[in-house]
Amino acid sequence: MRTLSVFPAVALAVVLAPLNSAAQDTLRMPPGNGGFDSAYVIDCTHMLTTRFYVSSKFNAMNMRDQDIGSNVEYRPNTRTNLGLGASYRALTLNIGIGFPFLNSDDSLRGKTRYFDGQANIYGRRWVINLFAQSYRGYYIDRLSYPGSAAQDSTYLRIMDDERLRPDMRQRNLGVSVMHIFGNKRFSYRAAFNQDAWQKRSAGSMLLGGNVVYQGLRADHSTIPVAVDSLFSPALRFRRIDQFEVGGLFGYAHTFVIAKHVFFSLSTSGGLGLAYSRSTTPSEEGDKLRDDWSLAVRTQARVAMGYNSARTYVGVQYVNEQSITNLTPGAQYAWNVGNYRLFITYRFKARVKPVDAAMRWFGQ
Q1: Considering only CA atoms, which of 242, 303, 293, 305 is closest in space to residue 267?
Q2: 56-91 tens-digit pLDDT
Q3: 197 burial class (0-12, 13-18, 19+ CB within 10 angstroms)?
Q4: Which end of the chain is least crowded, N or C, by CB within 10 Å?
């Protein structure tokens, strides 16, 4: 994530937020409190939650030959966005814009065109992660192989000639669903959607699964020509389609100090079955290969900051990663995620069109 000059604003918000905490603690709860135990969580979805945020999404692909010890990692040149958003009842809308003064490294990392839709839906009983991504334009972020060094002539030639890959395109589509067992005392929304307030420490076991598609296209091999002999033939593809289905198991916990300062950590993982069809260029023409393998998937969510019935100031990190071995020792991994900083304030307001729509849907 790029270094941003947002720390003065965060510091000011942290200083001012506690000043109204005595009044905030006595705000009226909605009927039923959203199903939460009010000694632990206050539901704020009946209020209009407004937010300012800074967001940086990321995406990476990694090809590693574990037997030889070679590794290459590609990343797109994504943008840092400033945004505004709001939540009310079951609805959340965020709009972010990438300003040029925050994104001025095209000469170093190349240009990336992309659509990146990542939605994290935090209900009381369920947490759902959806992503639909399309990226074009990558650069080599990391390259290593036996004997490589920053002054190595082969390494320097690769960095000059093959570091930027404007021809490389990737698409990711996926969904993962996790059930929150301790959902009366633990709230994902409090830490990650800012429309609840976790007043006391609590945690929960998690159980769910995922279905994912990942595809990559390139004009030539993803392995630099100068070192392709140092990578397994299974990793020298210029095209791959991978389908994965699996289960997930984990645990989440929010630690709270003096009702307001919190640190939330969620981690989960599991095994799945992956089918991969890849196209590898050769002197005789493109060769197709099909591989079945186990997939290891991990999810991590971290948030920390200050929260009350009115104010939220915090930072968040969300990451999802998949690792498969196309053949023994030939590891292909990719991950998606984001970093975000939020400054949020909640108003006691009614949005009548949304209320009417929720009643129509029986909510």
Answers
A1: 303
A2: 888 899 999 999 999 999 999 888 888 898 888 767
A3: buried
A4: C
Which residue shows structure tokens 């009115």? 310
Rg (CA), the chain: 23
For 10-42, letters b (16+ CB in 10 Å) and e give beebbeebeeebeebeeeeeeeebbebeeebbb
Across 281-301, b (16+ Cβ under 10 Å) vs e yields beeeeeeeeebebebbbbbbb
243: Cβ contacts below 8 Å, ≥ 6 apart: 212, 213, 274, 275, 276
> Quick check: 324 and 242 in contact, CB under 8 A?
yes
One-character DSSP codes across 286-301: -EEEEEEEEEEEEEEE
Of 128, 123, 127, which is closest to residue 35 (Cα–Cα)?
123
Tell me how far the alpha carbon of residue 316 is from its chain's centroid: 10
Are the C-beta atoms of residues 102 and 80 closer than 8 Å to each other? yes
Terminal alpha carbon distance of the chain:
39
Measured between alpha carbons, how far is 231 from 71 in angstroms, rounded to an integer? 8
pTM: 0.83
Is residue 318 within 8 Å of residue 338, measured between CB atoms? yes
